[in-house]
Amino acid sequence: MSLFGEVPQATPVAVFKLSNDFKEDANPKKVNLGVGAYRTDEGQPWVLPVVKKVEKIIVADNSLNHEYLAILGLPEFRSSASKIALGEDSPAIQENRVGAVQCLGGTGALKMGAEFLRRWYNGNDNTKTPVYVSAPTWENHNAVFSNAGFEDIRPYKYWDAEKRGLDLDGFLGDLESAPKHSIFVLHACAHNPTGTDPTHVEWMQVAEVMKRRKLFVFFDSAYQGFASGCLDKDAWAVRYFVTQGFEMFCAQSFSKNFGLYNERVGNLTIVARDSDNLKRVLSQMEKIVRVTWSNPPSQGARLVAITLNTPELFAEWKDNVKTMADRVLLMRASLQAKLQALETPGTWDHITQQIGMFSFTGLNPKQVEYMIKERSIYLMASGRINMCGLTTKNIDYVAESIHETVVNVQ
Amino acid sequence: MQVCDLLSWWSEVQMGPPDPILGVSEAYKRDTNSKKINLGVGAYRDDQGKPYVLSCVRKAEAQIAAKKLDKEYLAIGGLGDFTKACAKLALGDDNEVIKSGRNITVQTISGTGSLRIGANFLSRFHTEARDVYLPKPSWGNHTPIFKDAGMQLKAYTYYDPKTCGFDFQGALNDISKIPEKSVIMLHACAHNPTGVDPRPEQWKEIADLKRNLLVFFDMAYQGFASGDIDRDAWAVRYFIEQGHNIVLSQSFAKNMGLYGERVGGFTVVCKDAEEANRVESQLKILIRPIYSNPPMNGARIAATILNTPDLYKEWLGEVHGMANRIITMRELLVANLKKEGSTRNWKHVIDQIGMFCFTGLKPEQVERLTKEFSVYMTKDGRISMAGVTSGNVGYLAQGIHAVTK
Prior knowledge:
- Chain A: It is an enzyme of class 2 (transferase).
- The complex is a heterodimer of chains A (410) and B (405).
- Chain A is of the alpha/beta class.
- Chain A is built from 16 helices and 13 strands.
- Chains A and B meet through helix 2, helix 5, helix 6, helix 11 and helix 12 of A and helix 2, helix 5, helix 6, helix 11 and helix 12 of B.
């Protein structure tokens, strides 16, 4: 008898299964519009030129070794990463009330934040504090918070399927009716999976309600720079909330904007009321880190730190980021134009109105299935496509396929 | 700037105490005494007291750089080339477990990450027993890891402070009383913090003692203890041979000097390949909400070394070299203590194995050693032999003698 005789087979994580199925598909015309990773116009992964440069610098530096980082990570990474999110001249930074924890990717940053909140927010070990995630949201948000012990994870209205845009009234309504002190996970920019972000005015309305009702602000910032091509523009919401005096968390990922996916480079930026509170918070973060991974991996953080702290490299990075964002914008414009030219039924403005890596096409599950089975075009059941999977070579095939699908399948 | 509220959300958050082990290094850094010695963290140092980047690691890095690989996400379970080699290293190339595919090995965030995934897995699926039995004493971080994962901690006798050696009878007595299906943690080699390991015939008796305990091996020092990879994995392999389906944590922090790259593995030895598949699917479900997938850099270095014959050979030589330097330092320390005039029995310093030495010093003596001599170590009297050099061993002996005479 095995101790693990009763362990059930778990269902595979959808987005990775999609990639697997794509790999096994023999159709030469196949297109992968699944996993959120940038691709060049040749459909290839892209190691940023600045990253290659900095890797050479690291290899050549004999003073570097593989020693443990501090529990909270590489100091020059943490501070420069927080500056990226909050701005060089952020008053909160100047007031010494901003700290950070280097984490394993955006996931790791969310995880650390969630674990801390469960232990120390709204009482001690209050697992009943409601956690609100957008409807829809990144599929791992739910699991991160529930694994941290939160028992009550709820959706807040966000995506309006009918009008294919933000359901602002629903969003504000859920903020008004949420129990006080509820935690809200907000997407800083380039909402995943819808690509639909609130406008500045809409963010201001959200902030007003959250302040009044004492709701906790937890930003997920996985695409800074990637959305508009401009770091500051993409950080507007995060910075606005800081000016409004919130104590908040911001989980940052450098997977996409640095193309460092597998190095697991993330940062949990913490904005506290003052430096004393910050100090105590960080000391407790250390305890959580210690029982999870002890200290974070050095390579990726070192790479980012060198880049952000060296003016010419920083400029080059911003340029690389703009290259990626621009290609996505081009694909959006092309796809929309082609669908319009084909006179595909429905409206397709949302493709160019949405922002970032993803687009919520509006295709329903049956249509998605058709795309996969009949056209070998792989996308998520939600209708989400990764714009980076589009290239000048496959965009016609994709546009025609969407057209055929919408016409034949309801 | 407007304020939401006059109070902070975090007013009630207490200041956390410094980590007992990592806190030592931080205190060391602040000390301005030029003779200071850091014998806290288990990180290897060469005879100049400097971190040592293995030559095979540098070569592997150069090879990897030349390949111009992409940075796409790894699978949740990590780099296949790494996990396969990791299992082979622990279990032996020809192990029947690997041949039959009845192990699942996932890449983890070094040893800590491996223990944590293991703890989470047991907490979720090993519902018949909540108790984890640790040797007394054990690595300081074992307890908080298992506790945080929802397990209960108990202990079995292990270290004999009278002899500074293994309390074999005490261990057997305690282990024989452990309730069936409980989890028992065994340090595969180079016990941390004591450096005291059972002898093979003692391991045999332990393996035979209770058939229905879930054995969790922590192997953080394979190669580092005796200098021989296979010898250090002997206990792990013996238990499996005897029919224990173990779980195993491995770290490459020390034996490859990859500390900050966070390279580790977690293995579950299952009944068969079908079960291994189910277990793998559940491990992925556990990993995904923590960090999604593991970091590439260190795993790729380790895989390159393990899978390239001349690099592997070079690595074995370097591990052997590190272990030998430690053994030499043990001998030197004892010789110097005798020279200082110490009449105490320091035989255990030589008998103990691996990076750590349980000196037998009491907390008050440790405190004096730190305050008066700037020698940094953990309160339990543990010193990292890796921090001892031919340059500082004399001063160290002076200090130890001064606080123990």
